[in-house]
Amino acid sequence: MSVSEHLILGIESSCDETAAAIVAGGRRILSSVVASQVDIHRKYGGVVPELASREHLRQIVPVVREAAGQAGVQLRDVDAIAVTRGPGLIGALLVGITYGKVLAMALGKPLVGVNHLEGHVHAVLLEAHGEGRQIELPAVCLIVSGGHTILYHVKSEPVNGGGKFSYARIGGTRDDAAGEAYDKVARMLALGYPGGPVVDKLAAHGNPRAIRFVDPKIKGNPYDFSFSGIKTAVLYHLRRNPQLQPEIEARQQSLARGERGADALRALSSSATLDLIASFQHSVVDNLVDRTLAAAAQQGVRTVLVSGGVAANSELRRSFETESASRGLAAYFPSRALSTDNAAMIAAAGHPRFLAGDRADVTLEAEANLPLA
Ligand code: KG4
Ligand code: ZN
User: Fold this and answer.
1) Spatial distance between the Cα atoms of 332 and 132, rounded to a whole number of angstroms
2) Which of 76, 81, 118, 294 is most buried (CB neighbours < 10 A)?
3) Cα(357) to centroid of ligand 1, in Å?
């Protein structure tokens, strides 16, 4: 087997997805299995850490077994095990880390600890490779999910048949992550959990310029974000417009009956609500795109990478594509499946670290706030 065809088993359990994947040569996905816990956390409107850990414990063994099975690979044939060590929920991370350690020890394989955020960067590289596209680095990468909204400068230098990636933090959110704002606004409007996908679909039916949300004024770093203001602005808008309450209650009842599809919720939404949703999304997307492209200009890069759950958003993708093209920049995203948490991105990020001889051992610990840079 050539150096480029090392088989890496990736394990991811940092939040509410138990995931395992087998990736060959850091680029070819042989399998990617994701067990989502969204049905468990839905009734709480967010991830409940203790339930997450318990569910990871239940899922981790079958998920890893299924990843090996789908890839047609025996676990004893993998070259290394890459596991997310942070950032994330401590109890959730511990499940993946402990199982990774046990497997590495039992099989006599090297263990590589991976930063979850580095995984999101690699999700974009994986996708481009799958499509036969070559990404030019350095790049500016926006990671935008329910837990993170952060901008990095990413570069790589060739080392040892692979690449050594390095990261510098350019900016990040001062308060809520963008996905968190989507989820909170969806909750106020009774659109279900997680809110992003439904808001995305309903926004297409409203006027994005109906309500102007003021751009948050952030002192200091021009590449920082803030999303708590817009969330509060939506709340005040609802208080000023009590006529929107009956439909919120109707949607709540629809959700309680298990009717949570975008079509069902849209049928219970007035044009005023659809305008509010579209305007909220437009403001968030504008903010993300403007600051990211300003950072790209300031850093003098020609490539923009966008990853994380919110990268699945249709308006965000469209806006990044047109705005980047008009500035002569190339924008890349993962497919929807690789945008949200998965283990293929962890295996891919682990590959160059494996080639560089980066090894973890039984002392590897979960780090809730592990920074990438
Ligand atoms: O990356 P991810 O699966 O988990 C975290 O690490 O947070 O991201 C989940 C987040 C949720 O907040 C969800 O509402 C948001 O991504 N999301 C979206 C879309 N799909 C998922 N937000 C906007 N538009 C979407 N299409
Ligand atoms: Zn994530």
Assistant:
1) 13
2) 81
3) 33
Q: Please name which of 101, 12, 85 lies closest in space to residue 361, comparing C-alpha atoms.
A: 101
Query: DSSP string covering 343-362, please?
Result: SHHHHHHHHHHHHTT--B-T
Q: Are strands 330-332 and 303-307 parallel, antiparallel or unpaired?
A: parallel
> What is the spatial distance between Cα 360 and Cα 104, in angstroms, rounded to a whole number?
10
Q: What's the whole-model pTM score?
A: 0.95
Closest by CA to 265, choosing from 187, 365, 348, is 187
Average pLDDT value for residue range 12-27:
96
DSSP 8-state assignment for residue 220: S
pLDDT higher than threshold 70 for residue 7: yes
% of the chain exceeding 90 in pLDDT = 93
At 160 the pLDDT is 67
* 99 vs 173: CA distance, rounded Å: 32
Residue-level pLDDT at 161: 65
Q: Which pLDDT belongs to residue 3? A: 46
Taking the C-alpha atoms of residue 142 and residue 331, their distance in angstroms, rounded to an integer, is 11
Ligand nearest to C-alpha 121:
2
The closest alpha carbon to 368, from 20, 90, 76, belongs to 90
Choice from 41, 141, 145 to test ligand 1 binding pocket (greatest atom count within 8 A of CB): 145
